[in-house]
Amino acid sequence: MLFNSVIFITIFLPAALLGWFLLQRLENPVYAKLFLICMSFWFYGYYNISYLWILAASLAFNYILSTLMKFRERSRSLLSIGILGNLSLLFYFKYYNFFIDNCNFFLHTNIQVEKIILPLGISFFTFQQLSFIIERYKETAPHYSLIDYCFFISFFPQLIAGPIVLHSELLPQLQERNCRRPAAENLYDGFSLFIIGLSKKVLLADSLAVLVNAEYDNIMALDTPSAWIVIFFYMMELYFDFSGYCDMARGIGKMFGFYIPENFNSPFKASSVREFWRRWHITLSRFLSCYIYFPLGGSRRGKGRQCFNLLIVFLVSGLWHGANWTFIFWGLMHGLAAVFETLFPKARFKWEWFNRLLTFGFVTLSFSIFRSDSLAQALLLWKKLFTAGNNGFFAGMCNTLRYPENYAVIKYLEMTAPELLNPFYTLCLCLLAGIAITAVRGKKAELWLQEKGKSRWGIFCIATLFVWSFISLSQVSVFLYFNF
Q1: 3-state secondary structure 7-71
Q2: pLDDT per residue of the chain (484 residues) written in tens, 0 to 9
Q3: How far is CA 309 from CA 305, 306, 313, 341, 342, in A?
Q4: What is the DSSP letter of 180?
Q5: Residue 365 and residue 111: Cα distance in Å, rounded?
Q6: Which partner from 167, 293, 329, 396 sits 20 to 30 angstroms from 210, CA to CA?
Q7: How far, in Å, CA of 359 to CA of 207, rounded?
Q8: Other beta carbons within 10 Å of 190
Q9: Do 341 and 273 meet the contact criterion of CB atoms below 8 Å apart?
Q10: CA-CA distance, 280 to 317, in Å (whole number)?
Q11: How would DSSP label each residue in 324-350?
């Protein structure tokens, strides 16, 4: 089920909230927990009910290991089984065909590729359970009941695309009584944050995607100016899509009385690649630091080992995002940039704005590979970025920007002044780019809500965004990170 769908907003979410708070009136909280677990399974299985057995099997496997660790503390064998089992599940569904394709290519074998459908959110709930198993082994996580553990993993706001939540961030809240009564402030703040995230997705990300999807299928025709616009629009699309999802997830969590950790902190204000990763997909960076970078030695064994550790972390990050050489190469690019910054920390310009611009330029270039279907397509796009000249394709590219919001103007111009159509499309592109830049340079959603969310102007803005976004739900699209 999608957050940006009519059934979720009008049926699922109200029913989940109503059932949760009504059942909390009972003395025993287990009924409310079971209800929300069932609702989370409905949410997950709505897209494809066959995915449910994968989630249920993963939950059972990890909970059994967790229980056994209660009696066999610090058991390396159980930890090894847990890591191997979780990674095996991830490998089969996400990387098996990639592995077979490369074996067939490099070893000239003829192994049959299977038809494997990638289950939604498998990378997220697998990493979340890996972190719990590791913490159980280190004796930094207590043993929880089966119901609490299922709630922790399956809680629907963060189940499919994160953030990657730690047990210490959610389960202590579940065991308190604070979330057992509806609070008007939590409901308003949570729904307002949800609306801001919804508008990021529906009004910005999906609008930017119209041009991005059209031109990534037409790279051969791009000239240099249009190629740069395409990769800029994709960077903005990805940010608004994923940060919008996380805003919605955190907003839903707040409605239920839970705090879900922040996943984005103004990443385009970063003045270095390493700072960018402290601001972008924060919970993934935290996971990779805690469970790969620091166990490998972090920065404790000299610069050489630190650089090697950084490369490993970023290669894992690339591979985590998908089974394609484009993701591996993208991870390697960021790893090499982080190594360069580590070896030459003073290689910076004195103007902070220029460092930010360079960082944004590097990130945008690297994510053009991230979006490409293959390295060959990425190479072609990079050629267009630097050697394609200007053949006037820009005007034709702008013509893809046809939305319900500008439909009436387009039809009017087609009938009365067709010579003004190209200038109008160009104006639409500039307006969309200007809104995107203003949004990423502005205040974070929650900070804006704290300052203006309860003022008349703030309430008017929230209401307008909700109505506009809800009307636009007829063009429902999935979130980009569902693919990862």
Answers
A1: HHHHHHHHHHHHHHHHHCCCCCCHHHHHHHHHHHHHHHHCCCCCHHHHHHHHHHHHHHHHHHHHH
A2: 888 889 999 999 999 999 999 998 888 889 999 999 999 999 999 878 888 999 999 999 999 999 988 776 667 889 999 999 999 999 999 998 888 888 988 888 888 888 888 888 899 999 999 999 999 998 899 999 999 999 999 999 999 887 999 999 999 988 876 567 788 889 999 999 999 999 999 999 999 999 999 999 889 989 999 999 999 999 999 999 999 999 999 999 999 999 999 999 999 999 999 999 999 999 999 999 999 999 998 888 888 999 999 999 999 999 999 889 999 999 999 999 999 999 998 888 888 899 999 999 999 999 999 999 999 999 999 999 998 788 888 888 888 888 888 888 888 888 888 888 888 888 999 999 999 999 998 888 888 888 888 889 989 999 999 999 898 886 667 777 776 6
A3: 6, 5, 6, 14, 12
A4: G
A5: 35
A6: 329
A7: 25
A8: 23
A9: yes
A10: 12
A11: SHHHHHHHHHHHHHHHHHHH-TT---S
Three-state DSSP class for residue 273: helix
Residues with active-site annotation: 321
The DSSP H or E segment spanning 176 is none
Q: Taking a C-beta distance cutoff of 8 angstroms, is the pair 261, 284 a contact?
A: no
Give the number of C-alpha atoms closer than 13 A to the C-alpha of residue 383, restricted to the C-beta side.
9
Number of residues that this document lists for the chain: 484
For residue 194, the 8-state DSSP code is H
> What b/e readout covers 43-79, taking b as 16+ CB neighbours within 10 angstroms?
bbbbbeeebeebbeebbebbbebbeebeeeeebeebb
The token pair that represents 457 in the structure block:
């102007």
CB 59 within 8 A of CB 154: yes
Whether 264 contacts 279, CB under 8 Å? yes
* Token pair listed for 201: 């997705």
Whether residue 345 has a cis bond before it, omega within 30° of 0: no
Exposed, middle or buried, 336 (CB in 10 Å: 0-12/13-18/19+)? middle
Can you say whether residue 291 is alpha, beta or left, with left for phi > 0 and alpha for psi between -120 and 50 degrees?
alpha
Distance from chain centroid for Cα 69: 32
